[in-house]
Design brief:
Strand content: under 5%
Helix content: over 70%
Number of strands: 2
Number of helices: 20
Structural class: mainly alpha
Strand order of the largest sheet: 1-2
């Protein structure tokens, strides 16, 4: 990314496009291309994120790590991930989410490729790998806030839900891709090949995006922004005190915090639940089927949401309807999961719970963009940071409940209770009116 004078650049949200027009949003063909590329970028984000878990056994054996040591390596990613959510969203709101996305992807792509090479050079393997994962978390922490900022500025409200839910399926695609390809590479060429595969694909994605989707001016970071650092010019400052006094802002933050933490809880404990409850079951079934189901449900939720809004239904009504399914109905299936003794039923309930959670993409995830498109990245970063931190607490609390009660029912009760708190808060206080401007609200 080059740095240049501020005069020739187009600030995010200014309404200028490559063709010189003043329409602030992508045209429909542009939106389709960007959606496909961002879906691929999200897929590669998860490919890089899951490289270490995929290679867990091989790395532990190669470096003679015990589970406690490897746990340190795994958890280090999370702490880095929490630290850059807010700042990543803020910078994206100022210079454009696409710039931040590409800069971070370039960095994590190079880091992924270099990790095996540098690991063989150093003698402090545990320290290096822990530091590497922490840095990976720092770099990837800016991705989703930047994505929220970019889509809030470039995608029409009537198309945001489908666009965001489509891009969101990249997380499932990435998990499945690295799970399949990574397992084969691991068996054929060793753990190093998994890192090379993921890192090089990421760098190729960055190159293609820069070459075919962005002009030289769009790749340039204004020099005046570099000189002023993270400060915000007076004319673009957002009244944060007034903003955080708005009930709808806190409603979407609390709802996002709750749904993110329960997602982390299910992601962390579902494999163990199936292994302990159904010891003779095939691992690839319960590790793959729920995430396969989540792909079409995510796409359907976005299509349904945008279709209903285009038919004249109020935006906030549709956002809340989607959230009822994403947090409420999915929790019912989670509760059923704790009650069944049938493996087939358990797969159905787990798939329904994980799949229906993707309706959140068309609920609270895009509601942030409804409320404050001028600072959607920063607000999403605040909510995602809180969700990640609460996720650690819930994951730990779930383990504590299993140890003390000896029952998995308590874990799924915890998931349902946390989801209910977020859902009720959003239903009571959620709105879809802009609150980042002093102008008269437009009833959506």
């Amino acid at each position: 990314m080059a740095a240049g004078g501020g005069g020739g650049n187009v600030p995010p949200g200014s309404g200028m496009r490559r063709d010189g027009g003043t329409e602030p949003y992508w045209s429909r063909p542009e939106c389709r291309v960007w959606t496909a590329m961002l879906l691929l970028g999200t897929c590669l984000l998860y490919c890089a994120r899951v490289t270490v878990p995929i290679c867990a056994v091989a790395l532990s054996s190669y470096f003679d790590w015990d589970k406690k040591q490897f746990g340190v390596v795994l958890s280090s990613f999370f702490w880095g991930y929490c630290l850059t959510q807010i700042v990543g969203g803020h910078i994206s709101d100022q210079i454009g989410g696409e710039k931040v996305l590409l800069l971070s992807a370039s960095a994590w792509g190079f880091l992924t490729v270099l990790t095996p090479l540098l690991t063989h050079i150093t003698s402090a393997h545990l320290v290096f790998m822990t530091s590497s994962r922490f840095l990976m978390g720092l770099l990837q922490g800016v991705y989703f806030p930047s994505l929220a900022s970019l889509l809030s500025q470039r995608v029409r409200e009537s198309e945001r839900a489908f666009t965001y839910s489509t891009v969101g399926t990249g997380s499932q695609f990435g998990t499945l891709l690295i799970g399949a390809a990574g397992s084969l590479l691991l068996d054929w060429y060793g753990w190093e090949s998994v890192f090379y595969f993921s890192g090089l694909l990421t760098l190729l994605w960055v190159y293609c995006t820069c070459k075919y989707l962005l002009s030289e001016k769009e790749l340039t970071i204004p020099m005046n922004y570099l000189t002023r650092g993270l400060s915000v010019p007076k004319q673009t400052k957002v009244p944060w005190k007034q903003l955080f006094r708005k009930a709808p802002i806190w409603a979407v933050i609390i709802a996002q915090l709750c749904t993110a933490s329960t997602f982390f809880t299910l992601l962390s404990w579902l494999p163990t639940f199936f292994k302990e409850t159904f010891p003779d079951s095939k691992g690839w079934v319960f590790n793959v089927v729920p995430w396969l189901v989540a792909i079409p449900t995510s796409l359907f939720s976005g299509f349904l949401s945008d279709h209903l809004i285009s038919q004249g239904y109020r935006t906030i009504t549709i956002r809340k309807f989607m959230q009822v399914i994403g947090s409420g109905v999915s929790s019912i299936f989670a509760l059923c999961l704790g009650q069944t003794s049938s493996f087939c039923k358990a797969i159905v309930f787990a798939s329904a719970s994980v799949g229906l959670q993707t309706f959140n993409h068309s609920g609270i995830s895009v509601n942030v963009q409804d409320l404050a498109p001028s600072c959607a990245g920063l607000l999403f970063g605040v909510a995602n940071t809180g969700g990640a931190l609460l996720g650690v607490i819930c994951v730990y609390l779930a383990g504590y409940l299993i140890e003390t009660t000896g029952s998995w029912i308590s874990v799924f009760n915890l998931v349902a209770a946390v989801n209910s708190i977020g859902l009720c808060t959003f239903l009571l206080f959620g709105e879809a009116q802009r609150v980042d401007t002093d102008s008269v609200y437009v009833d959506l």
